[in-house]
Amino acid sequence: MTDRRELHFTTLDQLLTEARRLAETDHAGQLKSTGTWTLGQAFGHIAGWATAINDGTYPKVPFIIRVMMRLMKNRMINAPMKPGVKIPGIANGTLFIDVLTVEDGLSRLFRAVEVIKATNSPFIHPLLGLMTPEQFIALNLRHAELHLSYFQAKNGPHC
């Protein structure tokens, strides 16, 4: 079991506020990670998945996996994501894990949030099927909560 913070975002702006706070904590040399990724890598990963639908980098997923995931759609949108989940058939179990500087990762995250905010009509998610913009925001917030929970100030759980 890793030492992770419990996070819950209700808005994209809360996510960005926490991302800025983590970047500032890192810049001050006070950030610790209880995971294996760098902060820039986590920012880039969250951003990559958020924009994959629009930029054509979303992986092709077998039909049976799509069916199973669509049955879990509400849980993925409303409940905390579980750590350690790996996508079968993809190297390292996930995508968008390039090592980035904190600044580059944060910039990608801010751009991704702008893309999410610009999504204002229902669409077909390649894995989860029909989604409203609100559901897509919630999905991305749950994803960010998972990955940012591994980072905290060296002197305590909150940055």
Helix count equals 6
End-to-end C-alpha gap = 21 Å
| Main sheet properties | 2 strands, antiparallel
Number of domains: 1
Q: What is the average per-residue confidence, as pLDDT, rounded to a whole number?
A: 92
**Can you list the strand order of the major beta sheet?**
1-4
Provide the structure class. Answer: mainly alpha
- Share of residues in helices: 40-55%
Percent of sequence in beta strands: 5-15%
Poorly predicted segments: none
Which word captures the global form? globular
Instruction: Give the strand tally.
Output: 4
Question: Assembly type of the shown chains?
Answer: single chain
User: Nearest-angstrom radius of gyration?
Assistant: 15 Å
Q: How are helices and strands ordered from N to C?
A: HEHHHHEEHE
Short description:
With 159 residues, the chain is mostly helical.
Account of the 3D structure:
With 159 residues, the protein is mainly alpha-helical. It has one domain. Helix content is 51%, strand content 8%. It is built from 6 helices and 4 strands; from the N terminus they run αβααααββαβ. A two-stranded antiparallel ribbon has the order 1-4. Helix 1 runs antiparallel to helix 5, helix 2 packs parallel to helix 5 and helix 2 packs antiparallel against helix 6. The longest helix has 17 residues. The protein is globular, with a radius of gyration of 15 Å. The relative contact order is 0.27. The model has no long low-confidence stretch (mean pLDDT 92).
